[in-house]
Amino acid sequence: MPHPVTHSAALPKHSLYLPEAILWITGLAALALMQPDAAHLFSFCPFSYVLEWCPGCGLGHGIAWLARGEWQKSWEAHPLTVPAITILCWRTGQLLYLHYKFNRKL
Asked: 77 by DSSP, 3-state: which?
């Protein structure tokens, strides 16, 4: 006899594609819309509270500068801004494709 679905049963993997895509789009948009030259008031980075250096420090500012067309300031904020945006956009496209592939009506 098959086991009944319990409360702890996981969602099918393909049902999580769209929420993750929305998360990445929202995050990139929020970073692009922030004011990169404004005072730094708060950080979600746990490294910034423990260490003086973090490998991702400046990435958000780099995205904000790049959204304004300031390539040099973006590079100075973090040299890996363009590769990070490229990877996140690729991942978002992949997630949207997979969501469409598994949810289209036949």
From this structure: helix
At residue 81's C-alpha, the angle toward residues 76 and 82, to 5°, is: 120
pLDDT for res 48: 75
pLDDT, tens digit (0-9, with 9 covering 90-100), for 30-89? 999 999 888 776 777 788 778 877 888 889 999 999 999 999 999 999 999 999 999 999
Q: Which of 65, 88, 90 is nearest to 78 (CA)?
A: 65
What contacts 54, CB < 8 A, 6 or more positions away? 45, 47, 48
pTM summary value: 0.77
Helix (H) or strand (E) holding 92: helix 81-103
CA–CA distance, 70 with 9 (Å, rounded to integer): 47
**Contact between 28 and 103 (Cβ < 8 Å):** no
Question: How far is it between the farthest Cα atoms of the chain?
Answer: 65
